[in-house]
Amino acid sequence: MAGDNVTHVTDSDFDQEVIKSDLPTLVDFWAPWCGPCKAIGPVIDELADTYSGKIKITKMNVDENPETPGKFGIRAIPTLIFFKNGEVADQVTGAVGKTQLVAMLDK
Amino acid sequence: MSSFQLIIIGGGPAGLTAGLYASRARLNVTLLEKGAPGGQVLNTDWIDNYPGFTDGLSGFDLAEKMAAHAARFGLETKLGEVTSMDLAGPIKKIFLEGGEELTTQAVIIATGARPNIVGIPGEKELTGKGVSYCATCDAPFYRDQEIAVIGGGDTAIQEAIHLTKFASKVSVIHRRDELRATKILQEKAFANSKIEFIWNSVAIEVVGTNEVEGLKLENKNGEKTTLAVQGVFVLIGTRPNNEMLPADQLDMKDGFIKTDQQMRSSLPGVMAAGDICSKTVRQVINAAGEGAVACLSVEEYLADLPLAE
């Protein structure tokens, strides 16, 4: 099912789920009021299915979790940050297409 | 390879309306959308001028209602990003990300547009770090801060008003000494004590290293000043989503598709609707209207096709 492979992360489990993750991890910082966030939602769900077991795909609601976005200087959503070994490997802001996201994950 | 009578590319108001009409006409149709349906409507805080919705409604709600309305008549929507197309012959080919190919007798291009950039130093580097193109998305990050809005049209003024719900001060930078925005929006903006207008000025640089610290302006006398702001919202019109279009096959103007009054492009069987069209008025209402017209033109085109052997 669409979205079943997406992990929802919070301020309290971000360290465990993302920074200390064994797999490279994509975090989609979103909020319920944000149109482009909604627009890319289905793409994120699809990526989670495609990369299942290889790359961990996560979402963080910035409305409920202000601490982590603050730490990464996020002032626009959607922002997608790709973490490898706990470090920021790549970052993109805005409703980008699947092609661009795939290119980021495959790099 | 899947084959259709009609493929609609783009799920904003134009594409969804075309889809609604096509489903009611019982065409073998599919609508391709690279994300969730809605298009730029999803970026709009409040729609107050769509007839029938007497109290106005959010862009989210309107997008959802339009998608649900088309779905009620059985419109099939497919998640997919179009990478290229070949529209010249009687059978049109649509190529999707991932290598899938679809064929169809007719196409409605409703790929829409996205926000324009100013193209000044610092803008690209600080995008997402204080430079924003979507006020409804990012306004809550600017609580009690001072920000600048670049633009003077409907979108700029409507979103400047929205931003005052969060920011302590909003400076609207406009290159002329009067606004293009509709009068009722102007009245609201002029009456809002948090909005200040800086006339006859253009932004020349976004200042800051890891975050926006200011916006450098130049007025028509050539005087330069720096406005101390933490955010810069760029709302200066749109540019076409045309990267996947065959520019060598279609008659275009400034990157937008030229159409006649029946929304027909220069190619037989290829219609266009909404913000991808070369036109002067870009409202939800005429995008929807164009979607309807484009679909009726498709029906006429299909009816006139010689029978397949």
Outline the structure in words.
The complex is a heterodimer of chains A (107) and B (309). Chain A has 107 residues and is of the alpha/beta class. Chain A has one domain: Glutaredoxin, CATH 3.40.30.10. Chain A is 34% helix and 26% strand. Chain A is built from 4 helices and 5 strands. Chain B has 309 residues and is α/β, with parallel strands linked by helices. Chain B has 2 domains: 2-114 and 238-304, 3-Layer(bba) Sandwich (FAD/NAD(P)-binding domain); 131-234, 3-Layer(bba) Sandwich (FAD/NAD(P)-binding domain). In chain B, 22% of the residues lie in helices and 28% in strands. In chain B, strands 1, 2, 3, 4, 5, 6 and 19 form a 7-stranded mixed β-sheet that branches. Chain B has a 5-stranded parallel β-sheet with strand order 8-15-9-10-11, with helices on one face. Chain B has a 3-stranded antiparallel β-sheet with strand order 12-13-14, with no helix packed on it. In chain B, helix 1 (13-24) runs parallel beside helix 2 (59-72) and helix 1 (13-24) runs parallel beside helix 6. The longest helix of chain B is centred in the C-terminal third of the chain and has 21 residues, at 284-304. The two termini of chain B are 20 Å apart. The mean pLDDT of chain B is 96. Classes of the chains: A alpha/beta (107), B alpha/beta (309). The interface between A and B is medium-sized, with 29 and 32 residues. Chain B: Residues 5-291 form the FAD/NAD(P)-binding domain. Chain B: It catalyses: [thioredoxin]-dithiol + NADP(+) = [thioredoxin]-disulfide + NADPH + H(+). Chain B: One of its GO terms (cellular component) is cytoplasm. Chain B: GO terms for molecular function: thioredoxin-disulfide reductase (NADPH) activity.
